[in-house]
Design goal:
six-stranded parallel sheet, 14 helices, binds uridine-5'-diphosphate
């Protein structure tokens, strides 16, 4: 199976992966995150873990447990860390700590290497007995809420290494080795493999969308950081100039309790426009997401904050130009004027929607550039190789 990546990355890169893996075979490795489905981290782990196992690595994946209260706390931390704002009640810190203790009692932590993904399980480090612990941060922590960061920093400082998604997220106030490794997409996953045109059309029609008319798409959880209302505003402005349908495709994630509320905000913003399709699909609707990304003429990722935004690479890989919020990891995927456009407002997004919908040739050129950009930089094999190198470095 892993040999099948050779068509994308060549022999040289593949051999490097085998070579690194060979040296790590005796280690036990554990990944811990906060949801089994929904959101980018689960998406990556579902693909990465089997690949690591195929390479002969002894790797496991565990998901922490929590009640609704805990996930409200972690979501508020998540928002506060990314926006720098918000007021956090005192007891939230205690609730966070309590659930770390509960999870530490249930998840065996006796591994040579432990990857802790994101802030939700970061406090487990207090229960470390041995091994190399790496905090893999997928969010933007460049301008965090001071109190939440101060709280979390006590834990993060105890790690052996930190991985962030782009160099700008590395922090001066951490005395821990930090490395930047961008997330990645799997070209062989059901979400990204080629689909026949007939399948794409059938799926799109099934959800009441017309594949013969232009589609602008955003795929995202209903999260304010993804700016669903801004997406709708951009569409409404663009529609004055071009024929277009908007599809916003979201799905719930068990560690994100705000989805319902934000979904309702989006419904209100949409009003009764029949060309706006706000779809809430079950997590793991990979073929559906794949089909909509292929059916779209233009893909939006109008985030206000974004650690990386796998959806950007997913769309670029399918040769779709992306109009992305000018923030965080979107900036390394959307090269302005080459693979898409970076925007700071719904008005600018609308401008580029119209521009791209009117210019098929440009869409094609940008699509080709986008695919190549992802092939070179954001495929899972590259992330895998860098993870293996990091383990070697920190355990060596
Ligand atoms: N996703 C999905 N269905 C949805 C919404 C999102 O399958 O309705 C997937 C999307 O294709 C991507 C991941 O969830 O693989 C979201 O990752 P991203 O990094 O874009 O954002 P996050 O949710 O982690 O903030």
């Amino acid at each position: 199976m892993i040999e099948r990546y050779v068509e994308f990355i060549g022999e040289h890169e593949l051999n490097a992966i085998f070579k690194y893996a060979e040296r790590l075979r005796d280690l036990s490795i554990l990944h811990i995150n906060s949801t089994a489905a929904g959101g980018g981290v689960a998406e990556i782990l579902h693909r990465l873990i089997p690949l690591m196992r195929e390479l002969g690595l002894n790797v496991e994946w565990k998901v922490i447990r929590g009640n609704e209260e805990f996930f409200r706390v972690t979501k508020s931390f998540h928002n506060a860390l990314q926006t720098g704002a918000g007021s956090i009640p005192r007891e939230y810190f205690e609730i966070y700590d309590r659930w770390q203790e509960i999870n530490a009692g249930e998840i065996p932590l006796d591994y040579d290497v432990v990857f802790i993904h994101d802030p939700q399980p970061a406090g487990l480090i207090r229960y470390k007995r041995r091994g190399v612990w790496i905090w893999r941060c997928h969010i933007d922590i460049s301008n965090p809420h001071p109190e939440v960061w101060a709280f979390l920093k006590r834990y993060i400082s105890a790690y052996d290494g930190v991985i962030v998604s782009i160099p700008e997220f590395a922090r001066d106030d951490l005395d821990v080795p930090q490395i930047s490794i961008p997330p990645s997409i799997d070209p062989l996953s059901p979400k990204n493999v080629p689909l026949p045109r007939a399948t794409v059309d059938r799926i799109v029609r099934k959800y009441g969308v017309d594949p013969e008319r232009p589609i602008v798409l955003q795929v995202s959880r209903f999260d304010r950081a993804k700016d669903p209302v801004g997406v709708i505003e951009a569409y409404k402005l663009a529609r004055r100039h071009v024929d277009v349908q908007l599809v916003y495709l979201g799905s719930p994630a068990s560690d994100d309790p705000e989805g319902e509320e934000v979904y309702r905000e989006a419904l209100r913003a949409a009003g009764d426009d029949k060309d706006i399709h706000l779809l809430m699909l079950p997590p793991n609707s990979h073929i559906e997401v794949n089909a909509f990304q292929r059916a779209a003429a233009v893909v939006l990722q109008k985030s206000i904050r974004e650690g990386f935004g796998l959806t950007v690479s997913e769309a670029l890989w399918k040769r779709r130009p992306v109009i992305g919020g000018n923030t965080g990891g979107i900036r390394i995927q959307v090269i302005h004027g080459v693979t898409g456009f970076l925007v700071d407002s719904p008005k600018a997004a609308a401008h580029y929607i119209v521009y791209l919908l009117k210019n098929k040739r440009l869409r094609r050129e940008m699509g080709a550039a986008g695919r190549e950009h992802v092939r070179r930089n954001f495929l899972i094999t590259q992330q895998l190789r860098r993870y293996l190198m990091t383990i070697l470095y920190l355990t060596g």
